[in-house]
Amino acid sequence: MTLTTGKQIGWIGLGRMGEAMSKRLLKAGHKVSVWNRTASKAAPLVEYGATIVGTKQDLAHCDFVFTMVSTTNDLKEVLFGEGGLVAGSVKPKVVIDSSSISQEGSAEVRQRLEAMGVGYLCSPVSGNAKVAKAGKLLQVASGPKALYTEIEPCLQAMARKVMWVGEGELARIWKIAHNTMFGVVIQNLCEITVLAEKAGIPRHIFLESINDSVLGSMYTRYKTPTLTNLTFDQVTFTPKLLLKDMDLGLAAARAYGVAMPAAAATRESVSRMVGRGHDDIDFAVLLQETAADAGLVLTSENVKMSDGLES
Question: Which of 20, 87, 151, 164 could form a disulfide with 129 if both were Cys (CB 3.0 to 4.6 A apart)?
């Protein structure tokens, strides 16, 4: 991989994903300056060579600035709000956003940035923070192909594979479709796991068999330890964030005239989890909810299971 020599990189948003992804950039030898609303979250990156800045506008001199935030409104705020990245006279060359936001919101951001002379790429990922730490993300991008080519070495530092999927906001559609499947798969995995356990198959044995079957995937493997040992406090993705993504998926389905009955049913299941107050907990708690509906009380099996993400 060839480094983007001499380029100054900025990073906004150091949640679970942002911290893991920016750390891989640093480990690859890129120069990265970081800003986070809670400054203490940035401190651990200093030992990897990061420079911590006090304001978002301190990153405006950078060539490339990555953003990884929760919602469309969060992205607009860090870019255009008071003290925002592009709110001053100095502006970065390119903004690369890896958040999960709507196609419409992304198009508005693109229009505003390009009107200021700032390039814009959408670059969402497949994988959670643990996947990011292991360097096994899939990272896609959309926007001008020339910008993608220029940014590609940075993306390669964070992922096992990078792909350009087209112009405009097509990467948003990719991410919306991806995360809609994400919800449907966990819903089905929880249902069949509860079915197998209630019939008498130990949970860890059933999950291991699925992982080794034609139906197994990186996704089923990395969720297996959580589902086996009920470690829902080890959060990778919350029910609230999954509900947001399911809503984005169904909105896109309505816009394009695509029926998605499995996704619609999953959305209601996830909504019920949120309504029951499952906030700061992993979305895999859906297994416990599904078991309760079946009259099954789950206990941890305390079995060491591989998540398939060993570096």
Answer: 20
